[in-house]
Amino acid sequence: MKATRLLGAAAAALGAVLVAGSGLLPPFPVHPDAMAYHGAAERLLAGDPLYPRTSPDDPIAYRYAPWFAFAFIPFASLGDAGMALWYAIVAFAALYVVIATFRLGGHAGLVLGLLALPTLGAVPGGNAGVPMLALLIATRLHPVGVGIAASLKVYPLLLVAGYVAERRWRDVALAIGTATVLWAPALAFDLSGYVTSPGGGGISLYAVHPLLWAAQDAILFGAVAWLALRRSRWTWLALAAAVPLVPPRIYLAGIGYFTAATQRINRTNRR
Questions:
Q1: How far apart are CA 137 and CA 156, in angstroms?
Q2: What is the C-alpha separation between 196 and 248, in angstroms, rounded?
Q3: Cα gap 169→15, rounded to integer Å
Q4: Which pLDDT score is estimated for 242?
Q5: pLDDT tens digit string along 12-23?
Q6: C-alpha dihedral over 102, 104, 109, 114, to 10 degrees?
Q7: Which of 139, 156, 228, 259 could connect to 164 by a Cys-Cys bridge, CB 3.0–4.6 Å?
Q8: Backbone dihedral angles phi then psi of residue 159, each to the nearest 5 degrees
Q9: What is the pTM of this model?
């Protein structure tokens, strides 16, 4: 099985290099996700509204906390070189997610590792969700990491249910507090143009009908709450399955939540 993990890691590394390399060759492609971050940083520099009125499918639609737009200013200021650097970060984050999953070991690590390989396909999109997932895995779902993730995608805040199941109330407060602190500066901006609609694209029940998606989320929230209140050891795995399904658009990198959840469970069992 050790040889299998090494082969899987080698395949992941090769895939990441190929995907990242293809993104760095001219003509330089910029996906709408990366365009949203780039545009937000440019608007901050120009003094324009951070959250402009626009359609949900417009590349300039920015839905994240203000700190990320400020953090993206260096990438935007360096032009193509800056965006190449951002894509390199996303590529290394994807590589880390895949290798960390294979390193779980056993049959679970092999299966999850193979399922995590599509994470490499998310690199050309330049989506912040990939580094966010790498952060959650690297920190073993530390509450500060969860709070930072929630300032980007919001729905990772559901992970606090895992702390509730462990009765770690300080971690609950730290995760929520971190997300609140990072989101609070948004109140200083004009939020009248903030885009709340998910728009088109992606795969989920929302694309079929919003009511089906709402019913699905109600079931997921109820199941997670029930497990957490019962202090079930299955809460983290249930969250790993639920968090990627909760948003109205599902992306390929969601399997990484199982990696983070498994790491958390293993660490808890060693205590």
A1: 13
A2: 11
A3: 41
A4: 93
A5: 556 555 555 545
A6: -30
A7: 228
A8: -65, -15
A9: 0.88
Give me the percent of the chain exceeding a pLDDT of 70.
Answer: 85
- With b for 16 or more beta-carbon neighbours within 10 A and e for fewer, the 217-235 pattern comes to beebeebbeebbeeeeeeb
Residue with tokens 């903030």: 194
Q: Which residues of 20-40 are buried (b: 16+ CB within 10 A; e: fewer)?
A: beebeeeeeebbbbbbbbbbb
pLDDT above 60 for 39 = yes
3-state secondary structure of 113: helix
Encoded amino acid at 265, one letter? I
Read off the pLDDT of residues 164-223 as tens digits, 9 standing for 90 and up: 999 999 999 999 999 999 999 999 999 998 988 877 666 778 888 889 999 999 999 999
Q: How far apart are the C-alpha atoms of 202 and 212, rounded to whole Å?
A: 15
How far apart CA 138 and CA 150 sit, in angstroms, is 16
How far apart CA 172 and CA 69 sit, in angstroms, is 26
Place of tokens 């200013």: 73
- 């993206």: which residue's tokens? 72
